[in-house]
């Protein structure tokens, strides 16, 4: 019996999030950029020619699910490991077994290592020769940056695929399917969910489908057969007490909070912050909004705002409520009282708009890694390099604003 058979046949013995794991590539939501029909990775999986790879992405984006799906589609042996407790001796035993399988049976071994960023560098080094010669097909999963947490000799031997957070629409689709599925979900119970509750649950989980399914399970189990799950039930299941406010009220409070910070109205922002905290809205949700505002609306006018906002988010995670209200208030006041500039927000949007519409122009020869034509402008200030493709030489994405710290950049640009 494989993992999927166990999940499907164990009824209510396993959590809904486990039972609803996607069973095939078509059921795995949100990763169409790498798994849509016709995409290279999907072709490789379907042809059982999977290369060694590292799957990088936020929690609950489907990294483990994708590895398990691949395990059902390959003729290679499949071993699942966790990097946190993995030792060199354990890994060497697996390598020896993989070599024997290849030598005597012509069968490769696929090794899935979850949280691969937690592996010590000496353990990662052990993988190098067997990944390079193909004895083992490595699939690593990580929530951290491959560039920073995986040793470069290993990452260079693997293809990195970035998994994206699920959208609100993806999560709503999966939640609806879980309620209707008679085999793995709550189809036989006949419960339904109203639109307000569904949208709220999909939004409050912040892209974490596992969290959303866990909350849906609690709501469904507490609802009578054939009845409807409403907003109040979902709020209780999420363990977020919103004192009966509606979904519209929820979004209106957030909107008022954001717009007060943007306008620099400290008293208004603090009032809406207090309203949200009193209503039981997740402080981490609020902290994430503050981080976004620090980059979007304060930006380069006061770059320290982003550092303070991130520190406030970390403080919320570290100390929790009710004390977390203090660093949240500190960050809100700092953002309100800071000069404002949305030039970075506009600049990246300008660049993305052009990238979507224009051809993928080549890298100028002087910037390529292999040509040796690059001249460091710090050491050679008079060197003339092209930093944009020649076809885009007159493009301008960043327009500094005459505000706060950015005044210096503004003055420089207007004096050139």
* Helical residue percent band: 40-55%
Helix-strand sequence = HHHHEHEHEHEHHEHEHHEHHHHHHHH
Cα(first) to Cα(last) distance is 70 Å
CATH class identity of the largest domain:
Alpha Beta
Q: Measured on Cα atoms, how large is the radius of gyration?
A: 26 Å
CATH topology of the largest domain: Rossmann fold
Strand percentage lies at 5-15%
Number of helices: 20
CATH superfamily of the largest domain: P-loop containing nucleotide triphosphate hydrolases
Overall average pLDDT: 87
**Silhouette:** globular
Unreliable segments (pLDDT under 50, ≥5 consecutive)?
1-12
Alpha-beta classification = alpha/beta
User: Order of strands in the sheet with the most strands?
Assistant: 2-3-4-1-5
Number of separate domains: 4
Count of beta strands: 7
CATH architecture of the largest domain: 3-Layer(aba) Sandwich
| Largest sheet composition | 5 strands, parallel
What does this structure look like?
By secondary structure, the chain is of the alpha/beta class. It has 4 domains: about 130 residues, Rossmann fold (3-Layer(aba) Sandwich); about 70 residues, Helicase, Ruva Protein, domain 3 (Orthogonal Bundle); about 90 residues, Up-down Bundle (Zinc Finger, Delta Prime, domain 3); about 55 residues, no CATH class. It is about 50% helix and about 5% strand. The strands form 2 sheets. It has a 5-stranded parallel beta sheet with strand order 2-3-4-1-5, with helices on both faces. The chain has a two-stranded parallel ribbon with strand order 6-7.
């Amino acid at each position: 019996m494989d993992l999927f058979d166990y999940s499907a046949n164990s009824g209510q013995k396993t959590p809904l999030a486990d039972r609803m794991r996607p069973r095939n590539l078509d059921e795995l939501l949100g990763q169409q950029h790498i798994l849509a029909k016709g995409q290279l990775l999907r072709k490789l999986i379907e042809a059982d020619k999977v290369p060694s790879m590292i799957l990088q992405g936020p929690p609950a984006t489907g990294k483990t699910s994708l590895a398990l799906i691949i395990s059902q589609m390959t003729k290679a042996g499949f071993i699942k490991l966790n990097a946190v407790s993995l030792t060199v001796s354990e890994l060497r035993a697996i390598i020896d077994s993989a070599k024997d399988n290849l030598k005597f049976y012509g069968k490769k071994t696929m090794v899935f290592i979850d949280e691969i960023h937690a592996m010590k560098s000496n353990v990662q080094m052990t993988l190098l020769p067997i990944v390079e010669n193909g004895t083992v097909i490595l699939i690593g999963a990580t929530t951290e940056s491959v560039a920073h947490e995986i040793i470069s000799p290993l990452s260079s031997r693997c293809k990195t695929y970035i998994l994206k957070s699920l959208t609100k629409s993806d999560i709503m689709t999966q939640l609806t399917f879980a309620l209707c599925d008679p085999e793995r979900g709550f189809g036989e119970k006949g419960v339904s969910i109203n639109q307000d509750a569904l949208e709220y649950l999909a939004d409050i989980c912040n892209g974490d489908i596992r969290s959303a399914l866990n909350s849906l399970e609690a709501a469904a189990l507490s609802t009578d057969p054939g009845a409807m799950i409403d907003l109040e039930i979902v709020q209780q299941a999420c363990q977020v007490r919103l004192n009966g406010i509606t979904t519209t009220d929820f979004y209106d409070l957030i909107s008022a909070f954001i717009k007060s910070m943007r306008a620099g109205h400290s008293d208004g922002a603090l009032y809406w912050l207090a309203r949200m905290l009193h209503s039981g809205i997740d402080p981490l949700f609020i902290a994430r909004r503050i981080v976004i505002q620090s980059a979007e609306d304060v930006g380069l006018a006061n770059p320290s705002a982003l550092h303070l906002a991130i520190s406030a988010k970390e403080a919320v995670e570290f100390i929790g409520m009710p004390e977390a209200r203090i660093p949240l208030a500190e960050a809100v006041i700092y953002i309100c009282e800071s000069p404002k500039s949305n030039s970075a927000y506009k600049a990246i949007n300008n660049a993305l708009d052009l990238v979507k519409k224009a051809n993928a122009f080549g890298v100028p020869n002087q910037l390529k890694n292999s040509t040796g034509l690059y001249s460091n402008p710090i050491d050679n200030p008079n060197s003339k390099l092209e930093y944009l493709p020649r076809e885009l030489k007159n493009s301008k994405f960043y327009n500094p604003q005459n505000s706060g710290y950015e005044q210096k950049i503004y003055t420089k640009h207007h004096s050139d």
